[in-house]
């Protein structure tokens, strides 16, 4: 798992979320890094009470905070701000297009604390910045495999190199399913406990087929054959057939595969000539959908079998 952080410079340059940020002071602190998606409105910290100040979080100052500073005697306000800036604050952000007091700009510049401004209302900005930080600071990892969308089920195919993952994915695409990523799947943990997979920008829509080379699925089969991202719902691991190995023939006990702390349903499918892996994967996706509706074929079979075993046949007793 990669430990993710974000610099204030990255946040300032973002245009996707409409944060509308501009630099007002403290340019030397743009390299400060954020590790948490939580923000704080300093409130009492502006009065000198810094007991519960979290300097590692973004400090958002709205109309209330700026008005309070402007109404204080200037020497007192300067003292409070100097005290606040003595902490390693990651960044100040002033909302609503307000012009911060000169002493806030001066102390931020002296302390190397970025002071940013936005035209957005505080509530709107806090909503956007929280979403932005949650998205950018989520745990990520990458895994060697293939991710396909089969009937709306995100299926992550695993297995050693050359076992046939890409060929299975190609056959699924031909059947009308959709490719998300081939070879390397980049995975990001979503709140609260979901995993989203996608391909890297350099290999998006591409697939490697041994003997054929690199092919572009989007160009060959159209936009309906690909997806940019997909929530991973289950993991199917392709294994070489081993006659000495005992494979699950009932499927009563659900196995799990853990990625970034999230447990996913895990199936192990042995590979040998004559087995139609594509059909098996498609059926596995259908069966997963049934389980999501509360229907578990294997367990229902077990319950019926146990119920029949409990019934004693007529004439079984001996006088």
UniProtKB/TrEMBL annotation:
Q: What is the catalytic activity of this protein?
A: [HPr protein]-L-serine + ATP = [HPr protein]-O-phospho-L-serine + ADP + H(+); [HPr protein]-O-phospho-L-serine + phosphate + H(+) = [HPr protein]-L-serine + diphosphate
What is this enzyme's EC? Answer: 2.7.11.-, 2.7.4.-
InterPro entries, sorted: HPr(Ser)_kin/Pase, Hpr_kin/Pase_C, Hpr_kin/Pase_Hpr_N, P-loop_NTPase, Ser_kin/Pase_Hpr-like_N_sf
- Identify the enzyme class: transferase
Which parts of the sequence are annotated with region: Important for the catalytic mechanism of dephosphorylation?
270-275
The record's section on Pfam families has: Hpr_kinase_C (PF07475), Hpr_kinase_N (PF02603)
Keyword terms, alphabetized = ATP-binding, Kinase, Magnesium, Metal-binding, Multifunctional enzyme, Nucleotide-binding, Serine/threonine-protein kinase, Transferase
Using the record's annotation, list all stretches that form the HPr kinase/phosphorylase C-terminal domain: 136-304
Residues forming the HPr(Ser) kinase/phosphorylase N-terminal domain are: 7-133
Task: From the UniProt entry, list the residue stretches annotated as the region Important for the catalytic mechanism of both phosphorylation and dephosphorylation.
Answer: 207-216
**Which residues make up the binding site for ATP?**
159-166
Q: Which cofactor does it need?
A: Mg(2+)
Identify which residues the record assigns to the active site: 144, 165, 183, 249
Look up the signal peptide feature and give its range. none
User: What positions does the entry give for Mg(2+) binding?
Assistant: 166, 208
Listed under subunit, the entry gives:
Homohexamer.
Q: What else is known?
A: Both phosphorylation and phosphorolysis are carried out by the same active site and suggest a common mechanism for both reactions.
**Family assignment from sequence similarity:** Belongs to the HPrK/P family.
Q: What does this protein do?
A: Catalyzes the ATP- as well as the pyrophosphate-dependent phosphorylation of a specific serine residue in HPr, a phosphocarrier protein of the phosphoenolpyruvate-dependent sugar phosphotransferase system (PTS). HprK/P also catalyzes the pyrophosphate-producing, inorganic phosphate-dependent dephosphorylation (phosphorolysis) of seryl-phosphorylated HPr (P-Ser-HPr).
Name the chain's protein: HPr kinase/phosphorylase
């Amino acid at each position: 798992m990669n430990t993710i952080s974000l610099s204030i410079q990255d946040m300032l340059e973002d245009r996707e979320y409409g944060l509308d940020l501009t630099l007002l002071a403290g340019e030397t602190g743009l390299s400060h890094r954020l590790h948490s998606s939580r923000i704080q409105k300093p409130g009492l910290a502006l009065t000198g009470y810094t007991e519960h100040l979290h300097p590692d979080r973004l400090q958002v100052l709205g109309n209330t905070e700026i008005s309070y500073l402007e109404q204080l005697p200037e020497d007192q306000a300067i003292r409070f701000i100097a005290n606040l800036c003595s902490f390693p604050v990651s960044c100040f952000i002033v909302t609503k297009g307000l012009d911060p007091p000169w002493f806030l700009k001066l102390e931020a510049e002296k302390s190397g604390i970025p002071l940013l401004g936005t035209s957005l209302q505080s509530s709107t900005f806090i909503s956007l910045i929280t979403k932005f930080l949650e998205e950018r600071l989520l745990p990520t990892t990458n895994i060697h495999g293939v991710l396909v969308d089969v009937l709306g089920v995100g299926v992550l195919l695993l297995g050693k190199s050359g076992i046939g993952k890409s060929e299975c994915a190609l056959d699924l695409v031909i059947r009308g399913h959709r490719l998300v990523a081939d070879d390397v799947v980049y995975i990001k943990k979503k709140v609260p406990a979901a995993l989203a997979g996608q391909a890297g920008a350099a290999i998006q829509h591409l697939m490697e087929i041994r003997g054929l080379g690199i092919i572009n699925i989007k160009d060959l089969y159209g936009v309906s054959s690909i997806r940019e991202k997909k929530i991973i719902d289950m993991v199917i691991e392709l294994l070489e057939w081993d006659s000495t190995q005992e494979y699950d023939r009932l499927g009563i006990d659900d196995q799990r595969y853990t990625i970034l702390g999230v447990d996913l349903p895990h199936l192990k499918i042995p590979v040998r000539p004559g087995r139609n892996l594509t059909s098996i994967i498609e059926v596995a996706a259908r069966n997963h959908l049934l389980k999501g509706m509360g229907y578990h074929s294997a367990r229902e079979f077990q319950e019926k079998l146990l119920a029949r075993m409990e019934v004693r046949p007529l004439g079984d007793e001996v006088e």
